[in-house]
Amino acid sequence: MKKALKKISDVCRIIFGYSIMITIFAGGLTLLGYIAALIIGGDTAALICEVIYKDIFPILIYISTVMVLFGLVTMYLAGEMALTAGKKKKNPENGGR
């Protein structure tokens, strides 16, 4: 069972990595759109900013949220408990602190 979960987790991790990379790249492209709008100016710049804000950002936010949840599920399938509080090991060299 653990081998199957490990294989599923490995595939999910690859999907997660590529999808987050694409989302970050698309976010960078929106930055370039805003810079281009700043350079162009006028009504065209306002139109560019409006398209980015109303059409592109909601899609990017939705995709990134789903991918973060997908990444969390992937970590828990692999047995990684990244978002849990762990006990710190006591270090005998400094008096157990």
Describe this protein's structure.
This protein is mainly α. The protein is 77% helix and 0% strand. Helix 1 (2-40) runs antiparallel to helix 2 (42-77). The longest helix is centred in the N-terminal third of the chain and has 39 residues, at 2-40. The mean pLDDT is 83.
Topology:
Blueprint: H1 2-40, H2 42-77
Q: Encode the helix/strand succession as letters.
A: HH
Quaternary status = single chain
Roughly how many Å apart are the termini?
Answer: 39 Å
| Tally of contiguous helical segments | 2
How can the largest sheet be summarized?
Answer: none
Q: Kindly state the percentage of residues in helix.
A: over 70%
User: Can you give the mean pLDDT?
Assistant: 83
Strand content: under 5%
Radius of gyration over C-alpha positions, nearest whole angstrom: 21 Å
Structural class: mainly alpha
The stretches of 5 or more residues where confidence is low (pLDDT under 50) are none
Overall 3D form = elongated
Structure at a glance:
This protein has 97 residues and is an all-alpha fold. It is built from 2 helices and no strands. Helices cover 77% and strands 0% of the residues.
Keywords for this entry:
single chain, 97 residues, mainly alpha, 2 helices
